[in-house]
Design a protein that fits this description.
Helices cover about 80% and strands about 5% of the residues. By secondary structure, the chain is mostly helical. The mean pLDDT is about 85.
Length: about 120
């Protein structure tokens, strides 16, 4: 018996063939884990790519909406945004929608860049 912190510790003898079999089982488990990791990585990659495609579709729709406002009011989104944040435009509901559309587009671009960064 070994002593630990002043207390006696009992050890149980292990069967002679315990370690080789256990090591072998761990090797098989490692193979399963490795295969599972590969499957998870493929699934995550596929999910991220699908999300990027979804973002691309949403970006195109938002750009169409911005184009509508630009044609309707005869100014670029950038010029509109500057005027809006400076408070030089009236309280037209279109202007609030235009700003929200631009904000959503900006957020989607940031999200897409983040996802693409993960995929590199």
């Amino acid at each position: 018996m070994a002593k630990r912190n002043g207390q006696k510790k009992r050890t149980v003898p292990l069967p002679a063939n315990f370690f080789p079999r256990r090591v072998m089982q761990m090797g098989l488990d490692a193979d399963k884990i490795n295969a599972s990791e590969k499957m998870v990585k493929r699934l995550v990659l596929k999910t991220l790519l699908a999300k990027v495609e979804e973002i691309n579709r949403n970006v195109e729709e938002l750009k169409k909406s911005l184009g509508y406002f630009e044609r309707k009011y005869g100014m670029s989104t950038e010029a509109f945004y500057q005027a809006f944040v400076q408070g030089s435009l009236d309280d037209n509901m279109d202007f609030f929608e235009w700003k929200a559309t631009k904000d959503m587009l900006d957020e989607l671009k940031i999200e897409k860049e983040a996802l693409l960064g993960v995929l590199k």
